[in-house]
Amino acid sequence: MSAAPRSLRTLALVAANLAIAALIAVPLLGGDSGAGRAAAPQHGANAPPPLAPLGPFVAYAATIERPLFSPTRRPASLAAAPGAAAIEGRYRLQGLVIAGTARHALVTEIAGGRTRELGEGDALEGWTVTRIEQDRVMLTSPAGEAMLALPSAASPDPAKR
Is the pLDDT reported for residue 153 higher than 60? Predict the structure, then answer.
């Protein structure tokens, strides 16, 4: 390869890059002559009707009763109060990892099967992990205390494991 064709290629690439940069920069800097802008709305016979005013707040009660981004589709205030039976009935302690001062618990949702790793001080649906012991996890919330215990190895009921 000779130096002349290589420098021509480099010059062509620089020119192409400058052209692309100019195409991007002109609309951003306001050099646009208005060719791409939408026409201003006309107020006449062909104008679209104005938007209707919103109805009363009670007309939108379903959006409050069943919020879209809530996993339970219930508002936080109407969800089950965080009682000990509620958290113990929703989660099962699968295992514990205690190594030195590090303590972690593996907790699984009974209904969904999703497993979470929790440490002391972590939160779970409004509950705070206060202690992780050899065979149980202690949780507290404004509603009280709860305990998730490891299933015993001698448990006759395999469904409780």
Answer: no
| Distance of alpha carbon 15 from alpha carbon 7, whole angstroms | 12
Domain ranges (residues) in the chain:
84-151
Residue owning tokens 């958290």: 87
- The Cα 82–Cα 143 span in angstroms is 6
The residue among 142, 83, 137 whose CA lies nearest residue 129 is: 137
- CATH of segment(s) 84-151: 2.30.30.830
Residues constituting the chain: 161
pTM: 0.44
DSSP string, 105-127: EEEEETTT--EEEEETT-EETTE
